[in-house]
Amino acid sequence: MRPILTVAETQAADRAAIEAGTPGIELMERAGTAVADAVCARFRPQATLVLCGPGNNGGDGYVVARVLKARGWPVEVRALSEPSTADAKAAAADWDGPTRPLNGTLEPALVIDALFGAGLARPLDGVAAHVAQRLASRPDKVVAIDVPSGVPGDTGQPAGAAVCASLTVTFHARKPAHVLEPGKDMCGEVVVADIGLGETPSKLVENGPEVWLSLFPWPTSASHKHARGRMIVVSGEAWNTGAARLAARAGLRIGAGLVTVLSPPEALASNAAHLEAVMLRPFETDAELEQAAAQVDAAVIGPAAGVNEATLLNVLALARTGSALVLDADAITVFRDDPEELFSVLDRDDVLTPHPGEFERLFPGLLAGSPERVTAARRAAEKAGAVVLLKGADTVVAAPDGRAAVNVNGSPWLATAGSGDVLAGFIGGLMAQGMDSFEAACAGAWIHSEAAELHGPGLISEDLPGLAPAVLRRLYEER
């Protein structure tokens, strides 16, 4: 797994490496050389300004300048102030090229931002703030070391002026600023360079196949449809049936053996006209729904279900069955006046999939009152006693035990009506096959984004289930 480390965790890894015998200046040499390698791989030799701050981030910059100059690049250092740490002073002493004070004047050149690293806890000011504002308008010619200056490493939320880069080179592991908006967008491409710090475990990781692929429920030669899981989706009223069908088709495509849409009688005709491999069954009351769902493995409720008493009662009925639940959209909003009623019936096998607005309805003030989305999702999962998937360009999946994963493959093409219904179906389909809820939510979110990227421009939600098999084929070959 690829950990996401806080600033404090990264600093602890640095200290551990130094205490184990690797000099700090050696780590700085490795870091600066890694940045120079990344720059040379992406840019042709050209006039380059390395902006060096007083700390170790600036020390890395002096190493970058020296390495690029040795490779034939025309390089000049612009120093914000004198180096303030022993390692930065040593790196500066080894730089034998031109150095001028950073005064806010930047002629056209490739800029290496080595002013401040992820640990900066205050807004930029003075000439640094002025330079950051100028660089924010030309990110294509900016490379940041660790994080763009002014972007706090633990939140990714600048308190003032901040640099924007097209490339950010960090070390050992990503930090929250690299994966959470707006920092994620301000970093551009992120390269994680190994500088020999060793393995650092973390309960926060990048969401990717290494998190869940070993647990993926592939069929075997002995598998049959009943063994691959039974999933239901609760349909809305006659004029709101499409969302449930999207979720049902997604569950079937991702491998659930039997998928059934449970439909109010007045919606049967609408659903029947559009369903083939997905089955259809009527129900009228919450008691009938509970009986129909008694033997299923996973249930999805919420997509266009309606914000009404019937949906509330249907959620409570499904909770009584013991099936793993995916609650989305209306099944979340309907509990806005009494979230505790919902939390009292959830368990660790259930998954909530809110977008920020729905999250606020169920957990009022929690998102605004948290330093960033990971903390908010973790607090919500603990409060609800269930897995919480907080949607967004930086989707976060959190479990009640504190585990969390952040999607780093988000796709802009998912900004279309119905894509969330498909995500709910993907997750429900994996849970129906016996995948644990946290891993199922992580896998569903990642596959969802990968499918969208396969299609690209023009994507609509109906396309997504049909794109999943290509992603699954690739995962199957990589398992």
Secondary-structure topology with pairs:
Blueprint: H1 7-19, H2 24-42, E1 48-52, H3 56-70, E2 75-79, H4 86-93, E3 99-101, E4 110-114, H5 126-135, E5 142-145, E6 167-171, H6 176-179, H7 183-187, E7 189-193, E8 204-207, H8 209-212, E9 230-234, H9 242-253, E10 258-263, H10 268-272, E11 279-282, H11 286-292, E12 298-301, H12 309-321, E13 324-327, H13 330-333, H14 339-343, E14 351-352, H15 356-362, H16 373-384, E15 387-390, E16 396-398, E17 404-407, H17 419-432, H18 437-455, H19 464-478
What structural class do helix, strand and pairing data support?
alpha/beta
Number of helices: 19
Mean pLDDT across the residues is 97
Low-confidence stretches: none
Distance between the termini: 15 Å
Shape estimate = elongated
Largest sheet: 10 strands, mixed
Q: Give the total of domains.
A: 2
For CATH, the homologous superfamily of the largest domain is named as Ribokinase
Radius of gyration using CA atoms only: 26 Å
CATH architecture assignment of the largest domain: 3-Layer(aba) Sandwich
* Percentage of residues in strands: 15-25%
Number of strands: 17
Biggest sheet, strands in spatial order? 8-17-16-15-14-13-12-9-10-11
Q: Tell me, what is the CATH class of the largest domain?
A: Alpha Beta
Helix content: 25-40%
CATH topology grouping of the largest domain:
UDP-N-acetylmuramoyl-L-alanine:D-glutamate ligase
